[in-house]
Amino acid sequence: MESAKRADSAAGEGSMLQRGLAVLDCFDANSPELGLSALARRTQLPVSTTARLVTQLVRWGALARTDARTYVIGQRVWDLGLLSPVNRELRAAALPYLRDVYTTTRSNVHLAVRDDTSALFVERLSDAPNATLISSPGSRLPLYACGVGKAMLAYCEGTVVEQSLQESTSFTSQTVVTLESLQPQLLDVRAHGYAHTEGEYSHGASSLGVPILSPGGTALGAIGIVAKAKKSELIQLVPVLQVAARGIARSLDIRADQAYVSWGAGPTER
Questions:
Q1: 266 confidence band (pLDDT: 50, 70, 90)
Q2: Which of 146, 219, 211, 150 is CA-nearest to residue 185?
Q3: Architecture of the domain made up of 16-79
Q4: Domain boundaries, the chain
Q5: Which of 51, 67, 78, 108 makes an SS bond possible with 126, Cβ 3.0 to 4.6 Å?
Q6: Which fold has domain 84-258?
Q7: Average pLDDT of span 195-202
Q8: What is the model's pLDDT at position 87?
């Protein structure tokens, strides 16, 4: 009898945890602030249940209540996020190089890592905060539709490439959504050391991406630039990004140099 009660209690706690995580999962870059009714709708939970969960999450610090009676992610979640290896190691190693790239190019410079089939942006430097909100920290883009995404995808297994296209969307007429079209581009990235997109996610925006490689040749992340520039102008910035990416990789592991020996002599108008 006691063991059955303990099992029921554990199951209830597990269900409560899952519901609490579902509430937190409602927030994203497009919805950083949500009201109670919106949270109930997104989680498909009764408003009363959602209210109890939200109260507990506010008490713990996972959520914070605004003056408008809406909710945002709380400081405690941010504090925990800073303990992630992405923030403690990769971001710390990358920041000096990102600043150098920004100083040299005066372009929107960002750092991204792969999160399943998405590029998760973890840092951005820009003098125009509203220019490229799609690459603000915490936002995600499909790997196949952005420069940093393709730079990382080129160093993934074939199954990841296929999965990234399973629910692909043509954001513009330029978006590459077939394996037959994407595969040659990824081979080009491995040969030349950079990815380029032009109007694939939004009209008029071009991007470059260069992978940050481990000694074993896997992509730890990528750094990139987004700008409204012609391809002939943008690719002149490739060497700047490649030097920075290699420097970040070496900061993380001095042996990373060996992963870059296969890159070609330099950028060309492909």
A1: very low
A2: 150
A3: Orthogonal Bundle (1.10)
A4: 16-79, 84-258
A5: 108
A6: Beta-Lactamase (3.30.450)
A7: 89
A8: 63
